[in-house]
Amino acid sequence: MFSTYLVTALRAIRKDKQHFFLNLIGFSIGLAAAILMALFAQHELSYDKQHPDSERVYLGHTDFTAVGLQIISLSSFKVAEKIKHDSQVEDVFKLVNTQEIGRALSNLVEVEGNYHRLNDFYMATTNILDFVNLTTIAGDITQALSKPNHLVLSEREAIRIFGNNQVIGRTLNHDEEQYTIGAIFKNLPENTHFKFDSLIHMPTQLKLEGDGYVYYKLLPGTAIPSFTKIFNKESNAIFYWQVKNNVKMALVNMEDLHLNGNNPAAMKAGGSLTVLQICISLSVILIVIASINFINLTIAQSAKRGKEVGVRKALGATKIQLVIQFLTESFVVVAFAGLTAFALVELTLPEFNVLMDRELGLNYDSAFTWITVVIILVVGLLSGLYPALFIASFNAKRVLSGDLIRGGTAILVRKLTLCFQGAFSIGLIIGVVSLYQQMQLINNLQVGYEKSSRLVVKSLPSDVLYKQEPNSLFDKIKDLPGVEQITASNTNLTDDMEFSLQFTWPNGEVLNVTQPTISTNYYPVETFGLELLAGRDFSPQFNGDWYFRDDENNRSVSVIVSRRMAELAGYQDVDSVIGLTLIAPGFNNMKAKVVGVVENVKIGSARQQVLPMSLNLGFFGGSVSSDLVIKTKNVDMAALSKKIQKIINEELHLSDVEISQLTDDYANAHKDEKRALDMVTIFSLLAIFLTCLGIFGLASFATLRRQKEVAMRKVLGASRLSIVNLLAKEFLLLVAISIVIAFPLSYWLIGDWLANFNERITQSIWVYFTSAIIITIIIWLTVASLAFKSASTRPSLILRDE
């Protein structure tokens, strides 16, 4: 029996190839998009679930939003020591970057005459295996972390340095001392927020006094809000400045860190909950549109098969048999669409991975694939059931007499679905244009420094960069063709502030806001491309500007301040602050002489506000690593980077430094917005295409229903254009309803998203009207093409049976 249904289905497909291919294209595109999004969502939601008790492990965060900064994933070890004996805390794990402590451990090591820098080098407490799922390849991780100068390496790091992973007991030379390899672990998987390749013992004093990543494993059933209150209370009791500045502490569950813990202090760049939500929402929209199209196209075809149904019923076919027959046809189309969708996924997956910055793959022997197949079949069943019931319910007598059942309710439902399709399309176009405008604003935003023609050499030793005496590294790089100027900076301008200097001004003013300071070498104004409003740049001819500390701990330094800092201190005339001496109470009343004023500088992304900022000469505040910023002109950046790399290797024995362009760093700070724009653009085009398919199906059905009316109007002298407009009029009314739905919803959603930015566009009315006009034209052209064909048919061919 089933073989009969299948053969009949294949015959029906062969008879109407156009209908089959329209259904196949629309459904397979929707399915392929949904599969790609499901792969991405599965990967994003899988982060950190492999770690022990991850559902009750929380990372302490410090919330600086009250002072204009971000929430960062660092907190005090001192607070952890205070509350680790709380009845709700089962255990505490601490991790700290060795380059972020006061006296950094050397990460430059030597083995057999070759120099290497240890990658992602962290100190960790011995209970790491209770918090992180590490697979030991050799040695004992716990024992190694309990001994000073013993290293635990990832397999990747061991192979990079030694050439193999059989290295237990071998040594690495550093600063006249040695590290001994105590254990090797399997490389961390991609789906974790942890990012370390080298681990070492954490001294007891640092456990008590340091800052870093503090993980709290709470007992089952712990009320997080109440524990957070305890967390804040104990932190405020230790740090008065937190109370003064309204700085709060926060806890984020380990499983949520990837999507909610993305900040400058995170071990590695996380994902974006907003991008994930957008992708999932758009994929659901596409699959719904594809299903609606499938229904509409199948219903449209029913007009051609009315007599077939009538004959079948006249010959004794039951309604159940007809439903099974048409469901079989739907399943055949869905099966072909599913296969085509998987083929499209394989073809587009490499480009999709580049777009999303992931390494996703489709494993056909996995639960994901089988669940996907089941979902495709269920969607096929739900999409095919209504058309099957609709067609099987045709009245045999009426269809055989040439009167196709009208089904007013069904037509109303299909028109409403078209309204929602049109609303989705209009909303997506508005979203694309608004996203594009916001990205243009971000790219052209006046940040106070020049992004183009600047190279940044990252994470070099600060003590090498901040030398007042002649510096051979600077001299060699500056002698390269195309290099105009060079300076040091402990702050990546596109990321976040490194530390701050709070000043007391001569008029007694003390600014009660965060005041980031950038530690530099000579010529920061020229190198960064800052706008100098008054005074001068730092230069060697004024060598007294350099940070100085005498034997009695008296300190002095010269600073360049921003216009906003001067104005907040009460000096509206920027020239009047030149020569003033400020006091930094937090650094033993260090004297800071103002030698220049620059235009305001925005540190970080467009989401962050402009803060009063200063630059100082040579006072790097304990920063272990800093960057080189190089101003270039008319030069091949890639070739210059190679030359710089060679010089650094010769001077500092570092062969793996990161060199980037400042424009790329700035773009990377807004990668989530760029990714959202790309995704919305792609999905908008797909949604509009699928909407056109749906309109084609509904329009073809409406045209067939009214073909006799069209023929009579032609006989009575109606022109083709009047007939086209007649048939298109009802669809334009549906577009009007779509506009009413789309406009307020889009305005609310886009306004909510734009609220995340300090600098943002104003939504323009022309964007809304333009999107409505675009969809109206597309729908009119789609309907007009069918209506014109119907209006061009000779009336005698339609009316000859009357």
TrEMBL record:
<keyword id="KW-1003">Cell membrane</keyword>
<feature type="domain" description="MacB-like periplasmic core">
    <location>
        <begin position="21"/>
        <end position="225"/>
    </location>
</feature>
<dbReference type="Pfam" id="PF02687">
    <property type="entry name" value="FtsX"/>
</dbReference>
<keyword id="KW-0472">Membrane</keyword>
<feature type="transmembrane region" description="Helical">
    <location>
        <begin position="20"/>
        <end position="41"/>
    </location>
</feature>
<feature type="domain" description="MacB-like periplasmic core">
    <location>
        <begin position="424"/>
        <end position="646"/>
    </location>
</feature>
<dbReference type="InterPro" id="IPR050250">
    <property type="entry name" value="Macrolide_Exporter_MacB"/>
</dbReference>
<feature type="transmembrane region" description="Helical">
    <location>
        <begin position="275"/>
        <end position="299"/>
    </location>
</feature>
<keyword id="KW-0812">Transmembrane</keyword>
<feature type="transmembrane region" description="Helical">
    <location>
        <begin position="367"/>
        <end position="395"/>
    </location>
</feature>
<dbReference type="GO" id="GO:0022857">
    <property type="term" value="F:transmembrane transporter activity"/>
</dbReference>
<keyword id="KW-1133">Transmembrane helix</keyword>
<feature type="domain" description="ABC3 transporter permease C-terminal">
    <location>
        <begin position="281"/>
        <end position="395"/>
    </location>
</feature>
<dbReference type="Pfam" id="PF12704">
    <property type="entry name" value="MacB_PCD"/>
</dbReference>
<feature type="transmembrane region" description="Helical">
    <location>
        <begin position="731"/>
        <end position="750"/>
    </location>
</feature>
<feature type="transmembrane region" description="Helical">
    <location>
        <begin position="682"/>
        <end position="704"/>
    </location>
</feature>
<feature type="transmembrane region" description="Helical">
    <location>
        <begin position="320"/>
        <end position="347"/>
    </location>
</feature>
<feature type="domain" description="ABC3 transporter permease C-terminal">
    <location>
        <begin position="682"/>
        <end position="792"/>
    </location>
</feature>
<feature type="transmembrane region" description="Helical">
    <location>
        <begin position="416"/>
        <end position="436"/>
    </location>
</feature>
<comment type="similarity">
    <text>Belongs to the ABC-4 integral membrane protein family.</text>
</comment>
<dbReference type="InterPro" id="IPR003838">
    <property type="entry name" value="ABC3_permease_C"/>
</dbReference>
<protein>
    <submittedName>
        <fullName>ABC transporter permease</fullName>
    </submittedName>
</protein>
<feature type="transmembrane region" description="Helical">
    <location>
        <begin position="765"/>
        <end position="788"/>
    </location>
</feature>
<dbReference type="InterPro" id="IPR025857">
    <property type="entry name" value="MacB_PCD"/>
</dbReference>
<dbReference type="GO" id="GO:0005886">
    <property type="term" value="C:plasma membrane"/>
</dbReference>
